[in-house]
């Protein structure tokens, strides 16, 4: 039976959703394989380990060390290499997040192993595992196989459906001592921008505003709509450049890549660089007063109109439900 390591990623003490999607992705690689979760940190990891089990991990290895308090590729790299040496897994899977993008190539290159980054689907074809990933900023998809003994994969958030949480699932949780030394990068403090509500990169619904929103205040109805739908607010670079909102909200080629179930683009023209970050969303609704706006070419539903009239109407109607 092959072993499939899933590296858990936490934020503010809780596991990120993409970790649960990575567990499901591991099972797609080998449905009979043993999914082994790996958690690194310096505090209590038991509750996160249990969560990994509830979402499908067969067992979880928790590595605690003072040098694993915050993520560094050196620290986490040493911890995960130690698990790889012990377990000889067939695959290592994690989210295509800032940490996943940083950590997996470093370990894969040390092991001279193949890496599929940003996988959106995984299928088994005979004795081959075929990975799908977007290329050319999402305009095309390529299918790839890995020929090395170990496969590294990062999975794009919101693409592979996680298993349902099942509290009756049980699995062994063990701790492992690893000497994490020679850390040249020391994180003194993490100052996180205060962002309330749903994490943009994992949101199922995104209401995004562009230059058409016209001001910081113009984002308020978009926030209200996003809150009603349990979603997050995003933005085009046009809106960020105009200082209507923070750059942390930027979606696109040089911003975040998102694939929510529903993307509502308000006052966004649909420049190619913006589409690169959102065109793989499952359903796209565009609100723009210019019927020729390029965003309508990727939209499933288009509303030609003034967003300051359309968005309040949507809010009113949703409140009635
Ligand atoms: P505009 O193009 O100005 O469009 C505003 C739209 O709002 C128009 O279509 C207008 O009809 C509509 N509108 C105006 N008023 C209303 C109203 N009241 N109601 C309804 N509609 C209204 N852009 C990104 O978004 N993300 C990126 O990551 C990114 N990376 C880039 C990287 C590079 C190297 C370069 C060169 C550019 C990049 N850009 C990126 C910028 C991109 O090219 C566009 O300039 C930007 O996306 C435009 O933003 P916008 O659609 O908000 O603004």
Automatic annotation (TrEMBL):
Question: Cofactor stoichiometry and binding?
Answer: Binds 1 FAD per dimer.
Top-level lineage group: Bacteria
User: Start and end of every Electron transfer flavoprotein alpha/beta-subunit N-terminal domain?
Assistant: 4-194
Q: Which Gene3D superfamilies match?
A: HUPs, TPP-binding domain
Protein's GO biological process: fatty acid beta-oxidation using acyl-CoA dehydrogenase
Question: What are the record keywords, sorted?
Answer: Electron transport, FAD, Flavoprotein, Transport
Q: Which InterPro entries match?
A: DHS-like_NAD/FAD-binding_dom, ETF_a/b_N, ETF_a/FixB, ETF_alpha_N, ETF_asu_C, ETF_asu_C_CS, Rossmann-like_a/b/a_fold
- Extract the SMART domains matched here: ETF
Residues that, per the record, bind FAD: 211, 236-237, 250-254, 267-274, 288
What would be an example GO MF term here? Answer: electron transfer activity
Question: What CDD domains does the annotation carry?
Answer: ETF_alpha
For activity, the cofactor(s) needed are: FAD
| Family according to the record | Belongs to the ETF alpha-subunit/FixB family.
Name listed for the protein in its UniProt record: Electron transfer flavoprotein subunit alpha
């Amino acid at each position: 039976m092959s072993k499939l390591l899933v590296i858990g990623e936490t934020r503010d003490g809780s596991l990120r959703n993409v970790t649960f999607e990575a567990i499901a992705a591991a099972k797609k690689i080998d449905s009979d394989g043993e999914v082994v979760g790996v958690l690194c940190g310096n505090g209590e990891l038991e509750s996160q380990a249990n969560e990994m089990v509830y979402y499908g991990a067969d067992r979880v290895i928790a590595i605690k060390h003072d040098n694993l308090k915050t993520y560094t590729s050196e620290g986490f790299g040493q911890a995960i290499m130690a698990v790889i040496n012990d377990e000889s897994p067939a695959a290592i899977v994690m989210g295509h997040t800032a940490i996943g993008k940083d950590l997996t190539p470093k370990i894969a290159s040390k092991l001279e192993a193949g890496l599929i980054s940003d996988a959106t689907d995984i299928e088994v074809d005979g004795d081959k595992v075929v990975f799908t990933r977007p290329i050319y900023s999402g305009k095309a998809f390529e299918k790839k196989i890995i020929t090395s003994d170990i496969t590294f994969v990062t999975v794009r958030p919101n693409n592979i459906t996680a298993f349902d949480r099942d509290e009756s699932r049980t699995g062994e949780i063990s701790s492992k001592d690893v000497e994490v030394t020679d850390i040249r990068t020391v994180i003194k403090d993490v100052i996180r921008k205060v962002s309330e509500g749903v994490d943009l990169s994992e949101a199922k619904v995104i209401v995004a505003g562009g230059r058409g929103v016209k001001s910081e205040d113009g984002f308020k109805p978009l926030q209200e709509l996003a809150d009603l739908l349990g979603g997050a607010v995003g933005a085009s670079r046009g809106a960020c450049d105009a200082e209507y909102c923070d750059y942390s909200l930027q979606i696109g080629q040089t911003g975040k890549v998102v694939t929510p179930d529903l993307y509502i683009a308000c006052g966004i023209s649909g420049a190619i660089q913006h589409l690169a970050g959102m065109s793989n969303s499952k359903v796209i609704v565009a609100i723009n007063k210019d019927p020729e706006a390029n965003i309508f070419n990727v939209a499933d539903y288009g509303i030609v109109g003034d967003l300051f009239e359309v968005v309040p109407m949507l809010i009113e109607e949703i409140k009635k439900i």
